[in-house]
Design brief:
This protein has eleven helices and eight strands. With 240 residues, it is of the alpha+beta class. It folds into two domains: 96 residues, no CATH class; 116 residues, Arc Repressor Mutant, subunit A (Orthogonal Bundle), CATH 1.10.10. The strands form three sheets. Strands 3-5-4 form a three-stranded antiparallel β-sheet. A three-stranded antiparallel β-sheet has the order 6-8-7. Strands 1-2 form a two-stranded antiparallel sheet. A hairpin with a 5-residue loop joins strand 7 and strand 8. Helix 3 crosses helix 10.
Amino acid sequence: MITIDGKWTMEGLVPSDPRRIKTVDELRKYINKVGFLPFFKGGIDGFSLEELTVADTWWSGNIAEDPWMWREVIAGEGEIAYGKLFRGRAGFISREWFPIFAAYRRDGYDFDSRYEDGLVSRRQKKVVDILNIYDMLPSYELKRLAGFGKEGEKNFEGTISELQMRTYVIIRSFRRKRNKRNEEYGWSVADYMLSEKLFGEDHVRSAYGMLANEAKDRIMEHLMRLFPETDIDEAERLIK
């Protein structure tokens, strides 16, 4: 996105561009083909859902063409990981590539081992402990049960973002809140889940035999094959 006259403006393709992703089915196939994809434009030109769609289709409310709604479809299917997975911003990682990112981002640690070695915060531990109890929880329930709020822990957004970046937590689906009459209202909110509960512990940790640098090199080599003109530093910043 760019700012024009003080307003956020999407950057995308013209409708006739053959690279354009037009449907959620095409998006699903593209993610599985390339392995991973940021949601919004980042450091690599052309490597985001934003840049592969038409700007006018965003936030139309028409699920057939609205990329903003496609994230809910993809997350809800549970076959592709969605969450804040690239520099603290949203994106997708295929089931095939998720263990490689886990090996890189976790450096061989499951969460409890990372906590025992003092590498994660007490706030993150509280969130993971709650998600170990429940299959998934909406953000407002997870925040409450993990003790965040006016009189409790601070920085829930930063905490849940870090857990996603480390591949421990993903967004499993979206839902809208309901009032006392059971009527939906407001914006959709994220349901969070431990990635091991989505893909299975064996699959998520299947690349733990790789050193973090080896996993990083594999991701980088793949990314540079896709975008050979990309600045290496930009590519590293994107996947870090």
